[in-house]
Write a structure and sequence with these properties.
By secondary structure, the protein is α+β, with helices and mostly antiparallel strands. The chain contains 3 helices and 9 strands. It is globular, with a radius of gyration of 28 Å.
Length: 224
């Protein structure tokens, strides 16, 4: 019987979200010196020195719905995991993060027969809706060739690519979604080690979008 090749190393790593806060101070002048007239025996003058005090900023706080990234391994239900990654442990495995408050990722992968599937679900939290929208647009621009996903959060985009290594094909789908100041990133890929082909584009794209919709629903369902 033909030996089975080892699974490909399929990992998706995203740059951490960088949060910048800028504060300004405004200075105001104190009351001017005043002169005070004395009696006929003499006169005296008192003066108050200039003073400066910081003024409170009138800028409204940035809109921010989510303070921290939610638990990613509960981002998709067991039924979705079983459907997209047959044979995988439904509990998933959380990948260590440099800042788990801002970015968390859960991964599922399994080889069933000759079919290999990999699913990553990531949550990232930005400082504001505006910052998240900017990051979303930048990432969409970097992953050209895809298309929008209607009804997915405040913005959804998906793209599928085919890669070949040592004559083995792997098809990977990536879905980006924004919900308020949070980004949801789904990576779903597959390979067939028997015929060295990859799953069809429609299968990978449909699976990635399904996981994205579940993950956004979980986020909006109370994970803040």
């Amino acid at each position: 019987m033909r030996s089975l090749p080892l699974p490909l190393a399929l990992t998706a790593r995203l740059s951490p979200v960088v949060v910048l806060a800028v504060a300004g101070w405004a200075l105001s002048s104190g009351p001017a010196a005043t002169a005070n007239s004395g009696s006929t025996e003499g006169s005296s003058t008192s003066a108050a020195g200039d003073s400066a005090a910081p003024a409170a900023s009138s800028a409204a706080p940035a809109a921010k719905t989510y303070d921290a990234a939610p638990a990613p391994c509960s981002g998709v239900p067991e039924a979705t995991v079983k459907s997209l990654v047959p044979g995988a442990k439904t509990s998933g495995k959380e990948i260590p993060s440099t800042d788990s408050r801002l970015r968390r990722t859960c991964s599922w992968n399994a080889l069933k027969g000759y079919d290999y599937r990999w699913l990553d679900v990531s949550y990232e939290v930005a400082a504001s809706d505006e910052a998240a929208a900017k990051e979303y647009e930048q990432r969409v621009a970097e992953k050209s060739g895809g298309g929008t996903v209607p009804g997915l959060g405040d913005g959804g985009y998906s793209v599928v690519n085919l890669a070949t290594e040592d004559k083995q094909q792997t098809r990977e789908g990536v879905v980006l979604a924004r919900a308020a100041n949070a980004l949801v990133v789904i990576t779903y890929s597959g390979s067939d080690f028997e015929n060295k082909k990859a799953p069809e584009t429609a299968e990978i794209n449909k699976g990635a979008i399904k996981a994205a919709k579940d993950a956004v629903a979980a986020l909006r369902g109370g994970a803040k």
